[in-house]
Specification:
With 387 residues, the chain is mainly beta. It folds into two domains: 6-276, Beta-galactosidase, Chain A, domain 5; 281-386, Immunoglobulin-like (Sandwich). It has helices at 6-9, 148-151, 273-280, and strands at residues 20-23, 30-33, 41-44, 50-52, 58-60, 63-65, 77-83, 88-95, 109-116, 122-128, 138-142, 152-160, 166-169, 185-190, 195-199, 207-208, 222-225, 247-253, 259-265, 285-289, 291-297, 302-307, 312-316, 324-325, 328-332, 338-343, 346-347, 354-361, 364-371, 374-375, 379-386. It has a nine-stranded antiparallel beta sheet with strand order 7-8-9-10-19-15-14-12-13. The two termini are 40 Å apart.
Length: 387
């Protein structure tokens, strides 16, 4: 269990393993699922800057119903579905109930699946069981004794489209409007080396908001509020006029139907374009031997296929419009055979070139294979079984 403060920790009866932290061996960042955020994922930079997000949010007769309202964590929980070198998959389940635990109806539950890869990029897939609702809105936290402006630059958001046009939005004088309607990538400009990135399905408009929802005239961002995270006050929107508590503020976001990519980078936003193109417009894949029925599953950013026995040979037909960036291959019914990988005839090193994982299923194992590669030309991939 993650410790916060003795008085707060003692509110809960829980096991030593109530929270989940996903770490990376290549970047100094974490994805944290903590009781204090009602288990909503926290995207945490190397110097402890936290970005979190909204959940399935609805307005009811009783007020705003969302994961933030579950002060007692009656209904919000996480579990690990996959935990291998190739990726981690976390399932977050929560209810959209109000602060008095009133439900609009029995369908207002959400199952989210977060597929997190070694490069720090993750697909967030949101399955809300009632009618369509909004769930995406970039939020960031400030520790007690600090302000939102201590956490983030006033040029707080950089946006880009898939063609490479880039704009930076500035909160210095007012909440800016994003007039760049074709943007599908955003970068949250924390005061840190690593920034938090969000990649949307192409065609999603990235908006900003909060000009009328600032706590004071001196506040630059929407908020801050101190009804979440950590707070036990039964309230769905309380401005913080002091810095004595953890607060959260908002920048804005899009309205994707059911998924987006989140992650970390210490590079320019332009370096995210190949990955965004790959996810939005994946190149076709052709199998020569060893598997069948290949398809690209956008909810996990992976090519999924069925192993048919023997070594696997396949080609990914990447080009400038549909590049490939750190692809994942899921081979069902593979068995527990270790693998040797070559790309365009060059054998990869397991330590850096690829990572593998085995997921137990009825009758055997599925192979999950993540390859560190970026290309705008076709890749020939061979997956050889080892004894």
């Amino acid at each position: 269990m993650l410790h916060y403060h003795d008085l707060w920790d003692n509110l809960w009866r829980s096991s030593p393993y109530a929270d989940v932290v996903v770490r990376f061996d290549q970047i100094p960042c974490n994805v944290v699922y903590w009781r204090g955020t009602n288990y909503g994922a926290g995207w945490v930079t190397e110097n402890n800057r936290w970005m979190s997000d909204q959940s399935s949010e609805i307005m009811t007769y009783f007020g705003c119903a969302e994961h933030m309202a579950d002060k007692q964590n009656r209904h919000s929980h996480v579990r690990i579905l996959e935990n291998t070198d190739a990726r981690v998959v976390v399932h977050w389940r929560y209810a959209s109930a109000g602060i008095t635990y009133q439900f609009e109806n029995w369908r207002t539950w959400t199952d989210e699946y977060h597929t997190i890869y070694p490069d720090g990029m993750a697909v967030r897939y949101v399955n809300y069981h009632d009618e369509e609702t909004g769930w995406q809105d970039v939020q960031f936290f400030a520790q007690p004794g600090t302000t939102p402006e201590d956490q983030i630059n006033l040029k707080a958001l950089t946006v880009a489209d898939l063609e490479g046009e880039i704009h930076t939005l500035d909160w210095t004088d007012e909440v800016p409007e994003n007039e760049f309607k074709d943007a599908s990538i955003s970068l949250v400009n924390f005061k840190s080396d690593y920034k938090v990135a969000v990649v949307y399905p192409d065609g999603t408009e990235i908006g900003t908001w909060g000009e009328q929802e600032r706590a004071t005239d001196e506040t630059h961002f929407a908020g801050p509020w101190n009804h979440w995270p950590v707070s036990q006050m039964p309230n769905d929107g309380r401005y913080a006029l002091r810095t004595d508590r953890v607060t959260h503020s908002a920048l804005g976001g899009g309205e994707p139907e059911s998924m987006a990519i989140y992650g970390f980078t210490d590079k320019d936003i332009s370096t995210l374009i190949p990955m965004a193109k790959f996810w939005n417009y994946p190149p076709s894949l052709e199998i020569s031997a060893g598997a069948k029925n290949a398809r690209f599953d956008k909810t996990q950013k992976a090519y999924v296929m069925e192993a048919t026995g023997g070594d696997v040979s396949l080609s990914v037909y990447a080009d400038k419009a549909s590049p490939v960036k750190n692809p994942c291959f899921v081979l069902k019914n593979w068995g527990d055979h270790r693998v040797e990988i070559s790309v365009n005839g060059n054998q990869l090193s397991k330590d850096k070139g690829f990572k593998q994982g085995y997921i137990p299923v009825e009758g055997g194992y599925n192979l999950v294979l993540w390859i560190e590669a970026e290309s705008m030309v076709p890749l020939d991939v061979k997956i050889n079984k080892l004894l």
